[in-house]
């Protein structure tokens, strides 16, 4: 994880969880969050909720989320999810002119965006909804397609 | 060089897959069979790091 355009940032907290609740053997055993120091979210046996970490990494230029494989079924069992990435120094320009006063902290949440094939311009630009699908690592086939909410602040590069 | 389809920008920050047997990031929401169902999250099948 880096800041677009480079530069230092701080990661105060993050939630890390597994993936599909009915296949916990596909989850990473644990995930190390590394930026100088290391904090660990243990997913194995945790259950279908997030592990809340508070690494408090200050003025770092990158953060590595390093999953360790769950060896129940093989090398692909390192799935995990991220949510509620708490970053200080809210930058109003990311959210448009309606918010003129900076906040002390903000939560970076996964959000909807435009989907496109690699090297192609975004599809459905400007539309309110886009569709995303999980891709099953075992079968290599898309599944669990879902329609995302509006509010595009995510894009492929 | 990291293939560009292994990059994903979210709100001023860039997530990059740098190793592992993976396909891509996915944004997940309104799922009933995933951790904390119905919430939006970034699905990450492998290691993330800056290029």
Protein described:
- The complex is a heterodimer of chains A (157) and B (51).
- By secondary structure, chain A is mainly beta.
- Chain A has a four-stranded antiparallel β-sheet with strand order 6-3-9-10, with no helix packed on it.
- In chain A, a hairpin with a 6-residue loop joins strand 12 and strand 13.
- Chain A is elongated and about 40 Å long.
- The two termini of chain A are 14 Å apart.
- The C terminus of chain A is likely disordered.
- With 51 residues, chain B is mainly beta.
- Chain B has a three-stranded antiparallel β-sheet, with no helix packed on it. A two-stranded antiparallel ribbon of chain B has the order 3-4.
- In chain B, strand 1 and strand 2 form a beta hairpin.
- Chains A and B meet through strand 1, strand 8, strand 9, strand 12 and strand 13 of A and strand 1, strand 2, strand 3, strand 4 and strand 5 of B.
Top keywords for this entry?
heterodimer; A: 157 residues; mainly beta; four-stranded antiparallel β-sheet; three-stranded antiparallel β-sheet; 14 strands; 0% helix; disordered C terminus; B: 51 residues; two-stranded antiparallel ribbon; flat
Which helices and strands appear, and what pairs or packs with what?
The complex is a heterodimer of chains A (157) and B (51).
Chain A: E1 2-3, E2 9-11, E3 13-17, E4 30-35, E5 37-42, E6 51-53, E7 57-60, E8 64-68, E9 80-88, E10 105-108, E11 113-114, E12 131-135, E13 142-147, E14 154-155
Chain B: E1 7-10, E2 13-19, E3 26-28, E4 41-44, E5 47-48
């Amino acid at each position: 994880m880096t800041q677009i355009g480079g530069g230092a940032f701080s990661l105060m907290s993050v939630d890390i969880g597994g993936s599909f609740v009915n296949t916990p053997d596909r989850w990473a055993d644990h995930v190390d969050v590394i930026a100088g120091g290391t904090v660990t979210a243990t997913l194995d046996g945790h259950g279908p909720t997030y592990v809340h970490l508070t690494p408090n990494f200050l003025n770092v230029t990158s953060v590595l989320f390093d999953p360790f494989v769950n060896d129940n079924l093989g090398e692909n069992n390192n799935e995990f999810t991220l949510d509620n990435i708490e970053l200080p120094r809210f930058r109003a320009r990311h959210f448009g002119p309606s918010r003129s006063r900076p906040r002390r902290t903000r939560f970076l949440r996964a959000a909807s965006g435009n989907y496109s094939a690699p090297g192609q311009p975004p599809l459905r630009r400007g539309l309110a909804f886009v569709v995303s699908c999980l891709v099953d690592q075992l079968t290599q086939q898309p599944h669990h397609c879902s329609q995302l909410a509006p509010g595009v602040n995510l894009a492929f590069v | 060089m990291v293939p560009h389809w292994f990059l994903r920008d979210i709100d001023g920050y860039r997530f990059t897959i740098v190793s592992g047997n993976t396909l891509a990031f996915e944004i997940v929401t309104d799922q009933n069979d995933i951790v904390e169902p119905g919430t939006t999250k970034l699905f990450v099948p492998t290691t993330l790091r800056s290029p």
